[in-house]
Amino acid sequence: MIPESVLNQIQDRIDIVEIISAYVPLKGAGRNFKAPCPFHPEKTPSFMVSADKQIFHCFGCGVGGNVFSFLMKQEKKDFREVVEMLADRAGVEIPKDKVISPQAVERSTALVKANEFAAGFYHRFLLEKKEAEDARLYLAKRGISDATIKNFKLGFAPDAWDGLCRAAKERIPDAVLEKAGLVVSKKEGGFYDRFRRRILFPIVDVKGACVAFGGRVLDESLPKYLNSPETEIYIKGKHLYGFAQARKAIHDSDAVIVVEGYMDVIACHQAGVENVVASLGTALTVDQVRLVKRNTKNVFILYDADQAGELATLRGLELFLEEGLDVKIVRLPSGHDPDSFIKERGVGHFKEALSKAQTLFDYKLAILKEKFDPRAVEGRVKIANEMVLLFRKVPNEILRSVWVRELARELTLSEEALMTEVHKAAEKGKGFTVSAPPPPQNEVRSVEKLLIGLMLDHPDFVLRAREEVRADDFQHPAARNIVKRLLEGANTSPLVSQLVNFYKDDPDAVRLISLSCAEIEAILDKQKTFADCLLWVKRSRITTQREGLRTEILAAQRQGDKNRINQLLYDFNELNKGMRKINEKK
Asked: Considering 345, 423, 498, 501, which has the largest number of Cβ atoms within 10 A of its Cβ?
């Protein structure tokens, strides 16, 4: 974790205008700069850079953020990589993580060195040695080209107990080889190679360093696959196989395809579909999902079409949903994986299967319809209950309401009853909070954007807003989150570029911050605009409260609770008085 103070120091010394102008020709437009957007084709420039706020925003494609955000997208690098790049340019030293001791760093370096040595040894053995002829024939039979072998640095472990041990002698200590999981200690003393007579698939981290291996036999002997144990530098659930090779394609296509096996990844890449990674086992983890999230929001999951694969897919889908990603599922014909499907039917049919990917709603509903009879009342209830458990994990309120409507139509059930069950599940699982209905199509209301932009423009607006509005007045989740942080913060407007750092893992929030700041640039009378927005928020709040009271009054009337009715009518009249006062200020 890079300290916030270091990020601030880098941003103080770096000018976003200077950085972006190295990539696109900026022209002055008042206090700001404009250019054609580097991230999508356009004829009329809609890409704006603010020197004052040190942010950028494109009104065409909606992308925005600070200097770190720009370089992450432009250079296809992750957050730490661009921070390190700019720190070097700004002359700012990034402190070492205090929880990592020099001894731990030394151990990690030694383990990486051992794995890199092993990767080179196994790769050369596969390419050059006569003893690897069977392995070369096996890969050729599987359709793997020499270029692909070199791209993924595939290797072959010799059929010897100490091939690696002897090669590494006097270069890598046996104890380090053991800690890297490359050799195993013998009871009588000494070591033997973990991998023998296996095709080896090096597993690399996000920086491209080899941290582990997966090994496959040439025949059908068991175990078919033998993998490196977890070590100080390798935790299976934190890595995705093929990510280093797929990273550029993921950014270019703004999508990732997640498959199960090493050969699936390699077959796809060789066929020209390069935005493909594997999950190193069927059980996706939160760390793997967040690694994906840092690079794209669009995910295609493609697991083997068997029961275990279906279940693994659903578990992974729920993790992607909880992180707010758009996930779809590709179902290949039974008995096929990506490797076999591409070989048998070609990459054209594979791309066609991708184009027909199902939404999560359709995918799970299809599975449940196979499991339960949708023609029977009992079957429909069971399907509905299973779907409701999934709905509560969907953070997007609009998507959830659309799915409820679709499910009600599919099962001929009451939409209101389904939504009631969704709310019950939410309360039980605390999966989401029920709030006022969001605006159409998940758009942020203009008044919300204006208020956020003005609060970020001057601290006086933050102070006034603190007295007049609440975070709950904002319907859009990202707007509500940002306003809550502003209202609870210091009595100043935070530097916008620094606020973007806080939300670097929340693209919706970053986009809203840059958009809000960009939209207020054309406002001449900001004081009047702010006052008008406050009045609008107050009227909206009272309208919502009155609707709630009407519902309570009807309920009290049905119950014949006169005392409750009188209290509610009093409250309703007080709200009407408040509304009249607000309208008098117009």
From this structure: 501
Return the structure tokens found at 204.
């690399």
Whether the pLDDT of residue 490 is over 80: the answer is: no
- In this structure, the strands spanning 199-204 and 191-193 are unpaired
Closest CA to 8 of 496, 437, 341: 496
3-state class (DSSP) for residue 157: coil
Burial 286-324 (b: 16+ CB within 10 A, else e): eebbebbbebbbbbbbbbbbeeebbebbbebbbbbbebe
Show Cβ contacts of residue 167 under 8 Å, excluding neighbours closer than 6 positions: 121
Q: Are 40 and 61 in contact (CB under 8 A)?
A: yes
**Cα 289 from Cα 283, distance rounded (Å):** 11
Closest to 13 measured CA to CA, from 93, 79, 96, 92: 92
Give the dihedral of Cα atoms 383, 389, 393, 397; nearest 10 deg.
70
Q: Name the strand (E) or helix (H) holding 502.
A: helix 496-502
- Which range among 3-17, 92-106, 510-524, 540-554 shows the weakest confidence by mean pLDDT? 92-106
Mean pLDDT confidence for 102-118:
89
Please tell me whether residue 232 adopts helix, strand or coil conformation: coil
Cα dihedral 201/202/205/211 (nearest 10): 130
Which amino acid, one-letter code, is at 443?
E
Q: Which residues contact 218 (CB under 8 A, 6 or more apart)?
A: 134, 135, 138, 197, 198, 199
Q: How far apart are CA 97 and CA 441, in angstroms?
A: 43
- Cite the DSSP H helix spans in 377-445: 377-391, 397-411, 415-429
pTM to 2 decimal places: 0.61
DSSP state of 204: E
CB atoms within 10 A of CB 31: 10
Which of 36-50, 116-130, 217-231 has the highest average model confidence (pLDDT)?
116-130
What is the average pLDDT score of the chain? Answer: 85
Helix (H, G, I), strand (E, B) or coil at 1: coil
β-pair partners for 191:
185
The backbone region for 346, taken as left when phi is positive above 0, alpha when psi lies in -120 to 50, beta otherwise, is left
Closest by alpha carbon to 465, among 439, 484, 437? Answer: 484
- The CA dihedral of 301, 291, 206, 266, to the nearest 10 degrees, is 0
What string of H, E and C letters represents the secondary structure of 240-308? CECHHHHHHHHHHHCCEEEECCHHHHHHHHHCCCCCEEECCCCCCCHHHHHHHHCCCCEEEECCCCCHH
Give the pLDDT score at 556: 80
